[in-house]
Amino acid sequence: MSSSSADDTEYSSQLQKVQAAGAEFLYAPYYYSVAGPYIIPQARSVGYQGIIMGPDGYDGLQLTDNTAAYNNVYYTTHYSPDDTSNKKVQEFINAYRKNNGADPNTFSALGYDTIYMIKDAIEKAGDGATREEVRNALAGLHFDGVTGSFTLDKTGSPKKSVIVLTIKDGKPTYSTTVNPS
């Protein structure tokens, strides 16, 4: 699809071209506020029934009343609320609901894990550590959190699994996990 501004709400002409080309897969890297009310329903309204996939920005999709339009929609993200194997996920969700009266999204989970990663780095660096020592303590840090288990490389980047969710009956549902090679 061609570039667009953040204020665009009409994508039908681009989506008609996708449909006319016979595409079976559409990667639409938008945020929930655009993908949910505009991209996905407009794709379906021009007849596109293939897979629509997006990034973690789909978490919290703003759905229209036609929840069937969101079938066959997938997105990659950092954690799944359906994960019952990781005790930390369910504890996080319960605490978040109790404190906020709502369900957490992936950005909440990332923020939560970020704070605990920094805490771990501060503890690893030791009492009286400088900012540089805390930053250096992140390199090689192994972390087990809500968004997974991983080790940061020397630049602070994790090599971690990616969760794929799909929309079923208007709700994000676990589909699969893609592990790094």
Automatic annotation (TrEMBL):
Record bears the keyword Signal? yes
Please name the SUPFAM superfamilies in this protein's record.
Periplasmic binding protein-like I (SSF53822)
Any idea what this protein is called? Answer: Branched-chain amino acid ABC transporter, solute-binding protein
Q: Which InterPro entries match?
A: BCAA_transport, Leu-bd, Peripla_BP_I
Domain Leucine-binding protein, chain residue ranges per copy: 6-170
Q: Which family does it belong to?
A: Belongs to the leucine-binding protein family.
Which PANTHER family does this one have? LEUCINE-SPECIFIC-BINDING PROTEIN, PERIPLASMIC BINDING PROTEIN OF ABC TRANSPORTER FOR NATURAL AMINO ACIDS
Keyword Oxidoreductase on entry: no
Top-level taxonomy: Bacteria, Bacillati, Actinomycetota, Actinomycetes, Bifidobacteriales
- In this entry, which stretches build a coiled coil? none
Which UniProt key words apply to this protein? Signal
